[in-house]
Amino acid sequence: MIESLHGNLLTPPALLPPAQSERASTGRRADPESTQNSLLAAVSRKEYRRLLGMLEPVTLTFGDVLYEPGDVISHVYFPGVSLVSLLTLVDHHLALEVGLVGREGMVGLPLALGVGVSSTRALVQGAGVAMRMKSAHFLKELGHNLPLQRALFRYTHALMAQVARTAACNRFHVVEERLARWLLMTRDRVQSNDFPMTQEFLSHMLGVRRVGVTKAAGELHQRRLIEYSRGNIRIVDSHGLEVAACSCYQAIRDIS
């Protein structure tokens, strides 16, 4: 199920109401000759064409919530240029990002491990098209599609490593380095240097107060690495931002 953060995303993700409504809109049929998602690209062209009968293109909107913790995973999502944050909730209202899923992966990974409910909030932070599959179809396919199995196993390892590295990064690195790392990870997945994002939203992604994000973004701006306005951030010096980022960015990139 998908629910949306309303307005200009100044409402913190942790304050989302529990009710969910279907908000994904179906798009035109995917090109059978290609796919933007690396997991789907791991299967042969013939297999991918067959999978198209079970895949539905949907448009994910910035701020949509695909799952809340405890929700039954009714669908899995294979992002293209869209991007989904995985957030862990503490005390039912505090949220912290622990992982990012883009074109390299799948949202709903617990299902591949035999778990039918989500342990995290899956929040869309990069709008775009994704391919959606019903869980029953996914489980049936996983049972006999060896190339997809192998790709999912590799991706599971990469996501676990990303979650572990993110936890350590949040504990040991300063906000400016973490912000640079996060912006670069987002850029890699949405394949754009320009994306919508408010500082309020970033404060929840990084688990710091808004004043901390404001200070860190101001420092990166003064170094002419980024530009930002209300609701939008643009990377203007990718190399410089990589230098400013902590070592976690390269470590996560190498694993992915």
How would you name the CATH homologous superfamily of the largest domain? Jelly Rolls
Q: Main beta sheet, described? A: 5 strands, antiparallel
Strand content: 15-25%
Rg from Cα: 18 Å
Structural class: alpha+beta
Overall shape = globular
Structure description:
The protein has about 260 residues and is of the alpha+beta class. The chain folds into two domains: about 5-145, Jelly Rolls, CATH 2.60.120; about 175-255, Arc Repressor Mutant, subunit A (Orthogonal Bundle), CATH 1.10.10. It has nine helices and twelve strands. The protein has helices at about 40, 45-50, 135-140, 145-170, 175-190, 200-205, 210-220, 240-245, 250-255, and strands at about 5, 25, 55-60, 65, 75-80, 85-90, 95-100, 120-125, 130-135, 195, 225-230, 230-235. Strands 1-4-8-6-7 form a five-stranded antiparallel beta sheet. A hairpin with a 3-residue loop joins strand 6 (about 85-90) and strand 7. Helix 4 runs antiparallel to helix 9 (about 250-255), helix 5 packs across helix 7 (about 210-220) and helix 6 (about 200-205) packs across helix 7. Residues about 1-35 have low confidence and may be disordered.
